[in-house]
Amino acid sequence: MVDERVVAPEVDEAERAAEAALRPRRLAEFVGQHVVREQLELVLHAALARGGVPDHVLLSGPPGLGKTTLAMIIAAELGTSVRVTSGPAIQHAGDLAAVLSSLDEGEVLFVDEIHRLARPAEELLYVAMEDFRVDVVVGKGAGANAIGLTLPPFTVVGATTRAGLLPAPLRDRFGFTGHLDFYSSAELEQVLRRSAGLLGVDLADDAAAEIAGRSRGTPRIANRLLRRVRDWAQVRGDGTCDRAAARAALEVYEVDELGLDRLDRAVLRALCVRFGGGPVGLTTLAVAVGEEPETVETVAEPFLVREGLIGRTPRGRVATPRAWEHLDLAAPGGPASLFG
Ligand SMILES: Nc1ncnc2c1ncn2[C@@H]1O[C@H](COP(=O)(O)OP(=O)(O)OP(=O)(O)O)[C@@H](O)[C@H]1O
């Protein structure tokens, strides 16, 4: 159930290509995130005016909000190319040394999930960021020798969903940190209209609003839902992406008006109906919906908490009045229960 979630904020390899086609290429096309955009624009344009490289950039925020897109945009704005790697892809410090020593002057090195770099690679990286130098070890055992290599200036763009997990020495090497926040519905509508144009989909305004409202503040989810609505319109409808098509398509995928899917609603319903609104412990709640506690905690709960549908207390999870309202149920002790 979890792997196929249409509202998952993560992406798999198959979807990457579809996403790449929808990526804004320049800052001016990047929707929303006004503060980060303006700050970045200053950093980049000042570097361009000086003819040097900008400070290293750290982008933090939940998945699907545009960190990779911004990294590509930074390279484009600087008129340079980008090398892409990620924390988990770098097994040994030597792998990172090889990447660093092959960088051309002014290039951007994008390190996704930078908080997942192994400690030796992390140390190598912050020395390289500070001094544009990397020590390459040649040979093995007693005969091993470290040779210092000077690197041409370059810019690291690091992306992380967990800025707090970055060790201070690495975090401090970033001269600019931008935090990406969830998008408003109006911003997501703008993302959707732009994507629809690129996909050749005729998207009615009310359909854009309908999809945006169910996209959990995340452009990746908005674009994914748009593709599902387009499919529905082609197969079941007459190709028109209007509000009726959007509603029907998203019903097929069990995404409700708030953007909750089947698992989210199962958790909410169990909490309200089976446990009378809680408090109930995570494990008990997970057993009630037939999932692992970790799945409930990492997949369903963050959005339910963010939406103010459930609360976490020291004694367990509790349903808020909004949860009962969303499920169309009368809250215990509420006015409706006096009569029901
Ligand atoms: N501000 C934006 N304007 C337009 N489209 C956007 C914006 N932000 C993200 N997108 C689109 O959303 C999709 C996901 O963006 P991206 O891959 O950059 O997210 P991410 O934060 O790097 O996620 P992850 O960390 O999971 O890789 C892409 O198709 C991208 O084009």
TrEMBL record:
<dbReference type="Pfam" id="PF05496">
    <property type="entry name" value="RuvB_N"/>
</dbReference>
<dbReference type="GO" id="GO:0000400">
    <property type="term" value="F:four-way junction DNA binding"/>
</dbReference>
<feature type="binding site">
    <location>
        <position position="69"/>
    </location>
    <ligand>
        <name>ATP</name>
    </ligand>
</feature>
<feature type="binding site">
    <location>
        <position position="68"/>
    </location>
    <ligand>
        <name>Mg(2+)</name>
    </ligand>
</feature>
<dbReference type="InterPro" id="IPR041445">
    <property type="entry name" value="AAA_lid_4"/>
</dbReference>
<keyword id="KW-0227">DNA damage</keyword>
<feature type="binding site">
    <location>
        <position position="22"/>
    </location>
    <ligand>
        <name>ATP</name>
    </ligand>
</feature>
<keyword id="KW-0067">ATP-binding</keyword>
<feature type="domain" description="AAA+ ATPase">
    <location>
        <begin position="53"/>
        <end position="186"/>
    </location>
</feature>
<feature type="binding site">
    <location>
        <begin position="130"/>
        <end position="132"/>
    </location>
    <ligand>
        <name>ATP</name>
    </ligand>
</feature>
<keyword id="KW-0238">DNA-binding</keyword>
<feature type="binding site">
    <location>
        <position position="317"/>
    </location>
    <ligand>
        <name>DNA</name>
    </ligand>
</feature>
<dbReference type="InterPro" id="IPR036388">
    <property type="entry name" value="WH-like_DNA-bd_sf"/>
</dbReference>
<comment type="function">
    <text>The RuvA-RuvB-RuvC complex processes Holliday junction (HJ) DNA during genetic recombination and DNA repair, while the RuvA-RuvB complex plays an important role in the rescue of blocked DNA replication forks via replication fork reversal (RFR). RuvA specifically binds to HJ cruciform DNA, conferring on it an open structure. The RuvB hexamer acts as an ATP-dependent pump, pulling dsDNA into and through the RuvAB complex. RuvB forms 2 homohexamers on either side of HJ DNA bound by 1 or 2 RuvA tetramers; 4 subunits per hexamer contact DNA at a time.</text>
</comment>
<dbReference type="InterPro" id="IPR036390">
    <property type="entry name" value="WH_DNA-bd_sf"/>
</dbReference>
<dbReference type="InterPro" id="IPR003593">
    <property type="entry name" value="AAA+_ATPase"/>
</dbReference>
<keyword id="KW-0234">DNA repair</keyword>
<feature type="binding site">
    <location>
        <position position="220"/>
    </location>
    <ligand>
        <name>ATP</name>
    </ligand>
</feature>
<keyword id="KW-0378">Hydrolase</keyword>
<protein>
    <recommendedName>
        <fullName>Holliday junction branch migration complex subunit RuvB</fullName>
        <ecNumber>3.6.4.-</ecNumber>
    </recommendedName>
</protein>
<keyword id="KW-0963">Cytoplasm</keyword>
<keyword id="KW-0233">DNA recombination</keyword>
<dbReference type="GO" id="GO:0006281">
    <property type="term" value="P:DNA repair"/>
</dbReference>
<feature type="region of interest" description="Large ATPase domain (RuvB-L)">
    <location>
        <begin position="3"/>
        <end position="183"/>
    </location>
</feature>
<feature type="binding site">
    <location>
        <position position="23"/>
    </location>
    <ligand>
        <name>ATP</name>
    </ligand>
</feature>
<dbReference type="InterPro" id="IPR004605">
    <property type="entry name" value="DNA_helicase_Holl-junc_RuvB"/>
</dbReference>
<dbReference type="GO" id="GO:0006310">
    <property type="term" value="P:DNA recombination"/>
</dbReference>
<dbReference type="GO" id="GO:0005737">
    <property type="term" value="C:cytoplasm"/>
</dbReference>
<dbReference type="GO" id="GO:0005524">
    <property type="term" value="F:ATP binding"/>
</dbReference>
<feature type="binding site">
    <location>
        <position position="64"/>
    </location>
    <ligand>
        <name>ATP</name>
    </ligand>
</feature>
<feature type="binding site">
    <location>
        <position position="183"/>
    </location>
    <ligand>
        <name>ATP</name>
    </ligand>
</feature>
<dbReference type="Pfam" id="PF05491">
    <property type="entry name" value="WHD_RuvB"/>
</dbReference>
<keyword id="KW-0347">Helicase</keyword>
<feature type="binding site">
    <location>
        <position position="173"/>
    </location>
    <ligand>
        <name>ATP</name>
    </ligand>
</feature>
<feature type="binding site">
    <location>
        <position position="68"/>
    </location>
    <ligand>
        <name>ATP</name>
    </ligand>
</feature>
<comment type="similarity">
    <text>Belongs to the RuvB family.</text>
</comment>
<keyword id="KW-0547">Nucleotide-binding</keyword>
<comment type="subunit">
    <text>Homohexamer. Forms an RuvA(8)-RuvB(12)-Holliday junction (HJ) complex. HJ DNA is sandwiched between 2 RuvA tetramers; dsDNA enters through RuvA and exits via RuvB. An RuvB hexamer assembles on each DNA strand where it exits the tetramer. Each RuvB hexamer is contacted by two RuvA subunits (via domain III) on 2 adjacent RuvB subunits; this complex drives branch migration. In the full resolvosome a probable DNA-RuvA(4)-RuvB(12)-RuvC(2) complex forms which resolves the HJ.</text>
</comment>
<dbReference type="InterPro" id="IPR008824">
    <property type="entry name" value="RuvB-like_N"/>
</dbReference>
<dbReference type="GO" id="GO:0009378">
    <property type="term" value="F:four-way junction helicase activity"/>
</dbReference>
<dbReference type="GO" id="GO:0016887">
    <property type="term" value="F:ATP hydrolysis activity"/>
</dbReference>
<dbReference type="InterPro" id="IPR027417">
    <property type="entry name" value="P-loop_NTPase"/>
</dbReference>
